[in-house]
Amino acid sequence: MTAHKPKVKMNTNQTITTEKKQQTADDLRNYVEKMAGGSGNKASKMLKKVSNGYISLMLNGKWEAISDEAWRNVANQVSPKEEWQFVPTKCSNTLYKLLDDSRQYSNCFGILANEGRGKTFGAINYGAENSNVFLVRCNEFDTKKTFLLELMRVMGLEPYGWSIADMMRNIVQAIMRLENPVIIWDEADKPGDNVLYFFISFYNMLEDKCGLVMMGTPHLMARIERGVRNNRKGFRELWSRLGRKWITLPEVSAAEVAEICQVNGVFDAMEHARIYNESDGDLRRVKRLVHASKRRA
Q: What is the Cβ-side half-sphere exposure of residue 97, based on CA atoms within 13 angstroms?
């Protein structure tokens, strides 16, 4: 028989630096004061696997007996997570102008950009800054019903117990009561034709009452233009309601990537150039490369 070699458990965690311990202790002190009313004992009951004794040692600078694992456990619970900072680009600014136009004047647009250029992130930020912006993120598995259920959810409407016709009527009635609403089909190249046809239905029922925006990659353009050429049901009507024109958002520039890196904690100009060259204009890739650069540092 061949003897099995014992498995060796490797510790890949880095040693916690003094600066990190001090930051975690400061975050813990803030947590105790704000979340536990200044009581370390109460805080220990609110945190997982953190005793009152550990809290006392951390806050009083007696760190010798505290393991790195304990420091990580506390940091994961009390230290704020670093958030990715949004930086406006020419792409996002153009999107904002189009959404503003659609919302204020009830216009319809077909907007295109390659993947990772910030369409969804920009639309989410626009919705956070403006009222009555309803963003529906489409999926390959969407049916007519799941699409309407998602639209009702983002509108804050009760979605249960209705037929598709009932849901459409309730959505339209709710939209008619709002000031400057806009509905956005995000990733519209993903769902089936039946979901795209809703664009026609909403246009017919809400013309001059609601902005309608369809966003996707160039695959959406190819799909609809192919449907128009082949005279497929509904595609000529859809193309007409989009104004027979696609609006393509601009690509992200090297200067914009450099600013994104700078705002998110990478300051070296050589790193900015490397990240831009490796990202292929994809802001998701930029985010990952920034994270990797900071980890290396």
A: 8
